[in-house]
Amino acid sequence: MSNYDVIVVGAGNGGLMAAANTSKAGLKTLLLEKHNLPGGCATSFRRGRFEFEPSLHELCGVGTKEQPGEIFGLFDELGAKVDWRYEDTMYRTIVKGENGYDVTVKAKREPFYDSMEEAVPGCREKVKAFIELNDKVDEALAYVDRKKGNPNPLVMVLKHSDFMRVCAHSTEEILDALEMPDKAKKILTTYWGYLGVPTDELNCMHFLSMLTSYMDNCAAMPYKRSHELSLALCDVIYKNGGEIRYNSEVTEFLYNEDGSIAGVVANGEKLYAKEVVSNVIANNVFTRSKGVKLPERDVKLAKSREFGISVATVYLGLDKSAEELGIKDYTVFIANNGDPRTQDDNRVNDGFYIVNCLNNVIPDSSPEGTCTLFFTTLIYGSDLPKDLKPQDYKKYKNDLAERLILDYEKTMGVNVMDHIEEISVATPVTFARYLGTPDGTIYGYKNAGWDNVIMRTTAQGKDNNVKGLSFVGGHGVRGDGYSSAYSTGATQGKVVVKKLKGDK
Ligand SMILES: Cc1cc2nc3c(=O)[nH]c(=O)nc-3n(C[C@H](O)[C@H](O)[C@H](O)COP(=O)(O)OP(=O)(O)OC[C@H]3O[C@@H](n4cnc5c(N)ncnc54)[C@H](O)[C@@H]3O)c2cc1C
Question: Do 468 and 275 touch, CB atoms closer than 8 A?
Answer without folding.
Answer: yes
